[in-house]
Design goal:
single chain
Length: about 220
């Protein structure tokens, strides 16, 4: 077994363990951390397949932005695990049904979806052009040409969906909530001292409450 095969098995074992812990960890923070580990191992497998662009994109986009955002959101929400577990068995049949459907679809794709396809050839670092000259091969350049030529419309549809999701997230965040304690800066600037401080006239001396009660009883007698 060469070093490349060893690294593949190492990344694959850690990836499977991390993915299993994502759905079995009781602490949401631990689940997010295991998901970060799973993405990092997937990026390593992409590097072994010479898909450097996909590996770097997975690290920068998911590990550097999305998963860090998930981690901060989970830590700031203060999720009560006991309250979340109350409806586990209530929703278990639906979750089991969805899991069975996903497993069946993946099995169908893996068993029948790749039949009749040729084995992919290894991507060389140097290719020969029409003139017979050896030129360096760029995986990222080839992927970019493929995305913006043959798959142009799917890329545009995905971009529109992401734009709509971003606008919807901003709209949901900026909605007026009743329990919000936000203060308008314009109201703070227009405030006057009389609106903040109220002067009340009180006598200079007043007997303490403990002495005032017996004196009031004596007056009544």
């Amino acid at each position: 077994m060469d070093a490349k095969t060893g690294f593949f098995y190492l990344f694959a074992v850690v990836l499977l363990y991390a993915a299993f812990r994502v759905i079995t960890a009781r602490n949401p923070v631990h689940a997010v951390l295991h998901l970060i580990l799973a993405f990092s191992q997937a990026a390593g497998i992409w590097l072994l397949l010479k898909a450097e662009f996909l590996a770097i994109t997975l690290v920068l986009v998911y590990l550097g932005a999305v998963m860090v955002l998930f981690l901060f959101v989970v830590m700031m929400l203060d999720i009560r695990i006991d309250a979340v577990r109350k409806g586990f068995w209530k929703h278990f049949p639906v979750a089991a049904l969805i899991g069975a459907i996903v497993t069946f679809e993946m099995a169908a794709v893996l068993m029948t979806g790749f039949r009749g396809m040729e084995e992919p050839k290894a991507i060389a670092d140097v290719v020969v052009n029409a003139a017979g000259q050896a030129v360096p091969y760029s995986n990222t350049k080839a992927l970019g040409k493929l995305l913006y030529s043959e798959y142009l419309y799917p890329v545009e549809v995905a971009a529109v969906i992401l734009l709509v999701a971003m606008i919807a997230a901003i709209a949901l965040t900026l909605r007026q909530r009743k329990d919000s304690k936000a203060i308008d800066p314009a109201d703070q600037i227009r405030v006057r001292a009389a609106d903040r401080v109220v002067m009340m006239k009180m006598p200079a001396t007043e007997p303490p409450a403990a002495e005032a009660a017996p004196a009031a009883e004596e007056k009544k007698q």
